[in-house]
């Protein structure tokens, strides 16, 4: 069984993929890390196996009889230990060099990198797409889009406590620390949605602080970007009108911004295009009208301790608000 | 377990029971009743909802609720007028002078319904629970005695001693610092 | 004759064997009942008490671990909410590190070091008693707070600003920080005692190259404790000041730094791992010869490896901070140093392998635990090499991979040797053997349960599961493996329960053990089981590293100590030649009273800084009583 365990696990490793997995690299940085991981794993597995085999042999072996033979066995052992220590030094030095080379190759720079400023809040993410043209700037939350094949640099900051940004499929993690500026660069090779999750313990809802990275072809990315720069969609029909009125007049607008309306709060995520995102509440629920209504109706049951209060709304008001939020695509 | 240990434990249990319990979600009925303040006809003062007394006055004694109040104080930009309690466009909140009285209900009413000469109403911007949290925090700003539950300093530039180091100011304000 | 017996300076040379034992028993006795319980300074009684308390905390911490596994066994299980879960994992970590692992390792040192050195009590025995009471108070503070729903909830590492004044309201973090202070005082006290005992109280003839390896390990560990603990004393004091008095040590807006905490914490926190691991290696080095029937191979190499691990452990702390964005050059240095510690660790493994290679194994329970140690610790050490690499660490840091790694190192590397040690030295302390049959079952359950519980966590981490999450969502592919892990953890828990059952039952009904049931070589087996309060009626004289094997069960002895005073023999540091006779302090209630006074002061300072001022008065009274001159000569040449 002891032997079987590594084999079994290797099988599991080979078979698994996931949209938040270091074992399914989808970009050059993650590729390098993945290669390094297997280099280390195989080396370490061989070392472990060698030690176990020697241990087994030592247990099964009959110790030598007679003083002269014992003396000789001790001399052999001393030499073997010397050799093993030398081998350890060589292996450790080799792995250090490999690790150092990998660090160099993944810290790539490019002039035309797309820069996204990401700010961690207790328990959501605010993303700012800074553009030299002021009218092309916009802020969004909990979902970022990146063009495939282009280097993306994420500038990391924290608004309250330490968070850590980690998209395992694309790159390693980097902490967001109050009072410090960190950054991280990666390129997505193929279109797809990759999940990122806060990796540094940040309080009550640390478990539900996810961000989705949507990689899409450059044209699709430009379309998305243009749509995001635009103001919020106008309500259609009386129900959505009512929803917008409630959003502006009730407590919602005190914390959330919907560009193009009177809702201009800055305590919670920007909701201008909340309907276009795949998930709400930092990866908690898929965006549907039902889940939006459930979230607004009782956020503390879904994410206990989060800073979204339960705003008293009637059933009709809830209907209207969820209809309007779904419209904000 | 020695009898001495048992006695010590019991004492601690009695002293600290539920001291730091954190209530994240209020039952909707309770949340609604938090808004039921019996206001005197003059509109200055009144009687707090009974549910607050029944639940042990959490907005004044519970550290978590007070810290939520402190978060709201910054989030709703109370500093804009009151600074960090020292006052500016609006009156100071930590010099012991209260235009409408020092009790929780009058502070609650000031926030919820607003007051003449510039204090806006936050009725539609905050939930009643949040207003109570903010009320509790503002009371701790003007407290004359240090409290174990009051928040400590912020991770920001220091503009005043931490709330748990009250009294932040002398009981007697100078004549230039506002007042009644 | 009676008059002669009352003579203060009666020497053991003047008495025959039977009378000598009676006199010594009288001089070194602990009064019966409660008075004795609170006043004793016998290192064995205190150490056993320490060990039992530490295992009680292991049991409590284990319950918390099982609760966490229950919650994580399926996605979005609503069994434990985030607030309680955060308290649970914080207290699990803090209990296991501060209230179980470090104290139990030090306690085994307190128990064995004087016995292995052939002396009658540890140096500063009253400090030893004080240390236990302070440790107990620290543990109670943490657990009482948890029961009252105000347990700390920021992780055993308590990173600021989350643990700072703004984001952790209430007294939860203060309780954690003060618990740290309690355990630091306790650990520092023991370390000082062990260092002095090892340097000055060795049996005549026990030169530096004849010191048992466990004693070397305890000695190096104690030096590491003395050098590492001040960092955390400083860090936690600054945290309390930030929270209580409003200082700005960790406030970036006022010139403080959030990363300062991490540097200070890990400057202590990484050596902490070796504080736990080094005594375990010492246990193995001391037990292994008994079970392969030959002296350990490479004594000098093992000692040097331990010393270099102790030194290197101070140069690795940054590998806990590889994702904080420190400068590249610094990170590369710490990669190299973190990997370099694999070399001395490897030397130890190779020497033990050679020892087994040259010897003839005896398949008893402690030896089986040692084999389980090899299997798991080598694996954990190798994943340690993986997390030492900066780029790899950016993927696995703060994931379940790291959870798996350090449980392999701490459970495989320290708890398995500890359980071996308990089984091995159990007859010495109780006079009875632990059941071999139950022991084998518990080895099997612990070994299989442990590996099946923790090995899959490596994979979970690589699949992206972060640490310290109270739940995970349905759309993440972690459910199946988490369920498997949770189920296997039951086997692990059963293994611990069986071990505890075996130990408790064997104290009453175990097979009687002689003085040296395993046929071991070191001095603790030269006295009776359990040893008398004075350990050795006459101090043995040593002329080899394996005295019993080379000199026989009845060793030559040194004599001339007074029997009417608690006298010890103090020897020179390098060659252990007799220097002076020193009087060891007798029983006293003052350490206990001083510990209560200190507890009141430290707990009070959670609530008001003035407690430090007023609380220092009872502490001063306690210390004055403790050190009140007794009018006995301290030592004689």
UniProtKB/TrEMBL annotation, chain A:
Which PROSITE patterns does the UniProt record give? COX2, COX2_CUA, CYTC, PROKAR_LIPOPROTEIN
Q: What is this protein called?
A: cytochrome-c oxidase
Q: Does the keyword Translocase apply?
A: yes
Mark the transmembrane ranges: 36-60, 81-102
Per the record, a Pfam family?
COX2
Localization: Membrane
Task: Tell me the superkingdom of the source.
Answer: Bacteria
Q: Which residues form the Cytochrome c domain?
A: 238-329
Question: What family is this protein classified in?
Answer: Belongs to the cytochrome c oxidase subunit 2 family.
What is the membrane topology here?
Multi-pass membrane protein
Q: Which reaction does it catalyse?
A: 4 Fe(II)-[cytochrome c] + O2 + 8 H(+)(in) = 4 Fe(III)-[cytochrome c] + 2 H2O + 4 H(+)(out)
Alphabetized UniProt keyword annotations: Copper, Electron transport, Heme, Iron, Membrane, Metal-binding, Respiratory chain, Translocase, Transmembrane, Transmembrane helix, Transport
Q: Which organism is it from?
A: Pararoseomonas baculiformis
Q: Indicate the segments forming the Cytochrome oxidase subunit II copper A binding domain, all copies.
A: 111-227
Q: What does this protein do?
A: Subunits I and II form the functional core of the enzyme complex. Electrons originating in cytochrome c are transferred via heme a and Cu(A) to the binuclear center formed by heme a3 and Cu(B).
The EC code for this enzyme is 7.1.1.9
> Where mainly located?
membrane
TrEMBL record, chain B:
Which cofactors does this protein require?
Answer: heme c
Task: Cite the residue spans of the region called Disordered.
Answer: 145-180
PROSITE patterns in UniProt: CYTC, PROKAR_LIPOPROTEIN
Task: Write the record's keywords in alphabetical order, separated by commas.
Answer: Electron transport, Heme, Iron, Metal-binding, Respiratory chain, Transport
Q: Which residues form the Cytochrome c domain?
A: 64-142
* Alphabetized InterPro entries for the sequence: Cyt_c-like_dom, Cyt_c-like_dom_sf, Cyt_C_IC
- Please give the SUPFAM superfamilies that the UniProt record associates with this protein: Cytochrome c
Taxonomic superkingdom: Bacteria
Name of the molecule in the record: C-type cytochrome
Automatic annotation (TrEMBL), chain C:
Bilayer topology reads:
Multi-pass membrane protein
- Write down the superkingdom of origin: Bacteria
Name the enzyme group at the top EC level: translocase
Question: Which pathway does the record list?
Answer: Energy metabolism; oxidative phosphorylation
- One matching Pfam family, short form? COX1
Q: Describe the location of the Cytochrome oxidase subunit I profile domain by residue ranges.
A: 22-543
Q: Which PROSITE patterns does its entry note?
A: COX1 (PS50855), COX1_CUB (PS00077)
InterPro entries reported for this sequence = Cyt_c_oxase-like_su1_dom, Cyt_c_oxase-like_su1_sf, Cyt_C_Oxase_1, Cyt_c_Oxase_su1_BS, Cyt_c_oxidase_su1_bac
Q: Where are the transmembrane segments?
A: 47-68, 88-117, 129-148, 175-199, 211-240, 260-284, 296-318, 338-358, 365-388, 400-426, 438-460, 480-501, 613-629
On whether ATP-binding is a keyword of this UniProt record, the answer is: no
What is catalyzed by this enzyme?
4 Fe(II)-[cytochrome c] + O2 + 8 H(+)(in) = 4 Fe(III)-[cytochrome c] + 2 H2O + 4 H(+)(out)
Record key words, sorted: Cell membrane, Copper, Electron transport, Heme, Iron, Membrane, Metal-binding, Respiratory chain, Translocase, Transmembrane, Transmembrane helix, Transport
EC code(s) of this entry: 7.1.1.9
Which compartment or compartments is the protein found in? Cell membrane
User: What is this protein's function?
Assistant: Cytochrome c oxidase is the component of the respiratory chain that catalyzes the reduction of oxygen to water. Subunits 1-3 form the functional core of the enzyme complex. CO I is the catalytic subunit of the enzyme. Electrons originating in cytochrome c are transferred via the copper A center of subunit 2 and heme A of subunit 1 to the bimetallic center formed by heme A3 and copper B.
Q: Which family does the record claim for this protein?
A: Belongs to the heme-copper respiratory oxidase family.
Name of this protein: Cytochrome c oxidase subunit 1
């Amino acid at each position: 069984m002891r032997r079987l365990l590594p084999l079994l696990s290797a099988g599991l490793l080979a078979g698994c993929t996931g949209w938040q997995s270091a074992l399914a690299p989808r970009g050059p940085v993650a590729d390098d890390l993945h290669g390094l991981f297997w280099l280390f794993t195989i080396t370490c597995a061989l070392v472990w196996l060698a030690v176990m085999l020697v241990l087994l042999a030592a247990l099964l072996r009959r110790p030598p009889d007679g003083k002269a033979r014992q003396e000789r066995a001790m001399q052999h052992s001393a030499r073997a230990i010397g050799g093993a220590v030398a081998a350890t030094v060589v292996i450790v030095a080799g792995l250090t060099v490999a690790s150092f080379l990998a660090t160099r190759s993944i810290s790539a720079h490019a002039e035309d990198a797309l820069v996204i400023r990401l700010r961690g809040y207790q328990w959501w993410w605010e993303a700012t797409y800074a553009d030299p043209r002021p009218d092309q700037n916009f802020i969004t939350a909990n979902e970022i889009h990146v063009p495939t094949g282009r280097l993306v640099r994420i500038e990391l900051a924290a608004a309250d406590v330490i968070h850590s940004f980690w998209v395992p499929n694309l790159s390693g993690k980097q902490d967001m620390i109050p009072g410090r500026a960190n950054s991280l660069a990666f390129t997505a090779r193929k279109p797809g949605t990759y999940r990122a999750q806060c990796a540094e313990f940040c309080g009550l809802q640390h478990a539900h602080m996810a961000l989705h990275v949507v990689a899409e072809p450059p044209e699709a990315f430009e379309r998305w970007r243009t749509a995001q720069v635009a103001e919020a969609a106008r309500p259609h029909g009386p129900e959505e009108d009512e929803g917008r009125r409630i959003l502006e007049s009730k407590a919602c607008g005190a914390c959330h911004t919907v560009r193009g309306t009177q809702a201009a709060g800055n305590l919670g995520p920007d909701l201008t295009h909340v309907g276009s995102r795949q998930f709400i509440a930092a990866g908690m629920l898929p965006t549907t009208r039902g889940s939006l209504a459930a979230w607004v109706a009782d956020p503390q049951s879904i994410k206990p301790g989060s800073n979204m209060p339960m705003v008293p709304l009637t059933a009709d008001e809830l209907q209207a608000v969820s209809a309007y939020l779904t419209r904000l695509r | 377990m020695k009898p001495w240990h048992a006695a010590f434990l019991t004492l601690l249990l009695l002293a600290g029971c539920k001291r730091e319990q954190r209530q994240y979600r209020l039952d909707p009925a309770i949340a609604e009743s938090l808004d039921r303040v019996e206001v005197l006809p003059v509109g200055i003062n009144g009687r707090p909802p009974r549910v607050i007394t029944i639940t042990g006055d959490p907005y004044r004694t519970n550290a978590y609720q007070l810290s939520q109040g402190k978060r709201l104080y910054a989030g709703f930009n109370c500093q804009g007028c009151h600074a960090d309690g020292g006052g500016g466009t609006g009156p100071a909140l930590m010099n012991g002078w209260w235009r409408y009285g020092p009790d929780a209900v009058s502070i609650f009413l000031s926030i919820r319904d607003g007051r003449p000469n510039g204090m806006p109403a936050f009725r539609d911007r905050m939930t009643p629970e949040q207003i109570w949290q903010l009320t509790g925090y503002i009371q701790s700003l003007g407290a004359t005695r240090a409290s174990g539950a009051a928040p400590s300093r912020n991770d920001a530039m220091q503009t005043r001693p931490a709330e748990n180091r009250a009294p932040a100011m002398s009981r007697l304000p100078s004549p230039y610092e506002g007042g009644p | 004759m009676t008059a002669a017996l009352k003579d203060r300076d009666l020497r053991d040379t003047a008495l025959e064997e039977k009378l000598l034992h009676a006199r010594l028993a009288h001089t070194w006795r602990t009064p019966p009942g409660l008075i004795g319980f609170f006043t004793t300074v016998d290192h064995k009684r205190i150490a056993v008490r320490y060990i039992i308390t530490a295992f009680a905390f292991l049991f409590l911490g284990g319950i918390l671990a099982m609760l966490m596994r229950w919650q994580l066994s399926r996605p979005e299980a609503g069994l434990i909410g985030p607030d309680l879960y955060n308290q649970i994992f914080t207290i699990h970590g803090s209990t296991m590190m501060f209230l179980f692992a470090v104290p139990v390792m030090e306690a085994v040192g307190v128990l064995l070091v004087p016995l292995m050195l052939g002396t009658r009590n540890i140096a500063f025995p009253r400090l030893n008693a004080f240390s236990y009471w302070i440790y107990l108070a620290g543990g109670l503070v943490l657990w009482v707070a948890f029961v009252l729903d105000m347990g700390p909830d920021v992780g055993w590492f308590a990173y600021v600003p989350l643990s700072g004044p703004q984001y952790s309201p209430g007294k939860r973090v203060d309780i954690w920080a003060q618990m740290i202070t309690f355990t630091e005082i306790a650990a520092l006290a023991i370390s000082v005692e062990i260092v002095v005992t090892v340097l000055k109280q060795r049996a005549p003839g026990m030169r530096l190259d004849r010191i048992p390896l466990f004693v070397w390990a305890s000695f190096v560990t104690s030096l590491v404790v003395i050098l590492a603990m001040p960092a955390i004393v400083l860090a936690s004091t600054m945290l309390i000041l930030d929270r209580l008095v409003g200082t700005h040590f960790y406030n970036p807006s006022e010139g403080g730094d959030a990363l300062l905490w991490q540097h200070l914490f890990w400057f202590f926190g990484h050596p902490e791992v070796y504080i736990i691991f080094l005594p375990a290696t010492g246990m193995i080095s001391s037990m292994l010869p008994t079970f392969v029937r030959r002296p350990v191979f490479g004594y000098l190499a093992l000692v040097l490896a331990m010393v270099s691990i102790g030194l290197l452990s101070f140069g690795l702390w940054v590998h806990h901070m590889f994702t904080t964005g420190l400068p590249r050059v610094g990170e590369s240095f710490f990669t190299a140093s973190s990997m370099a510690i694999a070399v001395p660790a490897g030397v130890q493994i190779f020497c033990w392998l050679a020892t087994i290679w040259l010897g003839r194994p005896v398949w008893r329970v402690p030896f089986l635990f040692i084999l389980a140690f090899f299997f798991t610790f080598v694996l954990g050490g190798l994943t340690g090499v993986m997390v030492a690499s900066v780029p790899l660490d950016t993927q696995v840091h703060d994931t379940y991979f790291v959870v798996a790694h350090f449980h392999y190192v701490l459970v495989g590397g320290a708890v398995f040797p500890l359980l071996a040690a308990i089984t091995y030295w159990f007859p010495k302390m109780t006079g009875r053997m632990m059941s071999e049959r139950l022991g084998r079952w518990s080895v099997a359950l612990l070994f299989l349960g442990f590996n099946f519980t923790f090995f899959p966590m490596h994979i979970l981490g690589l699949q992206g599961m972060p640490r310290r999450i109270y739940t995970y969502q349905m759309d993440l592919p972690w459910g199946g493996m988490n369920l498997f892990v949770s189920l296997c953890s039951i086997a692990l828990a059963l293994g611990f329960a069986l071990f505890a059952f075996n130990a408790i039952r064997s104290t009453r009904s175990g097979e009687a053990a002689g003085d040296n049931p395993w046929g071991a070589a070191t001095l603790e087996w030269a006295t009776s089981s359990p040893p008398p309060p004075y350990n050795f009626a006459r101090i043995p004289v040593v002329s080899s590293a394996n005295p019993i094997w080379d000199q026989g069960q009845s060793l030559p002895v040194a004599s001339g100590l007074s029997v009417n005073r608690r006298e010890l023999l103090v020897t020179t540091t390098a060659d252990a030649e007799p220097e002076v006779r020193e009087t060891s302090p007798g029983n006293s209630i003052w350490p206990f009273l001083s510990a209560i006074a200190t507890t009141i002061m430290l707990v009070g300072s959670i609530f008001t800084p003035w407690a430090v001022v007023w609380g220092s008065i009872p502490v001063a009274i306690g210390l004055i009583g403790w050190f009140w001159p007794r009018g006995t000569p301290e030592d004689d040449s």
